[in-house]
Amino acid sequence: MSFVIELHDIGVDAGSMSILRGVDLEVGPGEILGLFGPNGAGKTTLLRLVATLVRPSAGTGSVLGTDLSSQQRYAIRRRIGMIGHVPGLYPELTLGENLEFAARVAGVSRDEVGSALAAVGLAGVIDREAGVSSHGMQRRAEFARELMIDRDLLLLDEPHSALDQDAVELVNALVKKIAAEGGAVILVSHDRERVARIADRTVELTEGTLE
Asked: Can you give the pLDDT at residue 68?
């Protein structure tokens, strides 16, 4: 089996501090993984590692068949979608302009922007600046971006936080879409019950180690 994510004895250090240690994890195509753990356990660092934003300090790992310690890891970033608990939009740009920028980087036609925003209920606010949009609108715009761009791996950090029920259903639909197309999804959350409804399995991260 070819895994989307394959980590063996992975460690990540920040200066003299060990954030992750001895992490072993395999996530296959079509799999939805729930990741739980207390604050400060290293969950966000693990997501950043898998997103190729952090290099391992120890062990070996690959994502989408690419070694996480190699220079080739930069080439797979456009195949990875990540939505953090803080919206990652340019506040001075409109919601539409944010998606147009993402489309240009990903090689997607800007014609997809309008339909993507409409799909998440934002068709009427395409010209609103992200910085003056509500938190919920910003989150929806990020989901629209991920609907617009084909991803092989989706990483979500507290994706259901501060969302109404309609937006929660949008998140779940996006997760299921990625998995149905053979991609993989990791959901970091404190909401165990909600994640358990859509995850294939769950793991626990405690003090930098998976249990």
From this structure: 96
**Core vs surface per residue 57-76: b (16+ CB within 10 A) or e:** eebebbbbebebeeeebeeb
With a threshold of 0.85, does the pTM exceed it? yes
Please state which of the four CATH numbers 3.40.50.150, 1.10.357.10, 3.20.20.140, 3.40.50.300 is assigned to the domain occupying 5-210: 3.40.50.300
pLDDT band at 18 (very low <50, low <70, confident <90, very high): very high
> What is the percent of the chain with per-residue pLDDT over 70, rounded to a whole number?
99
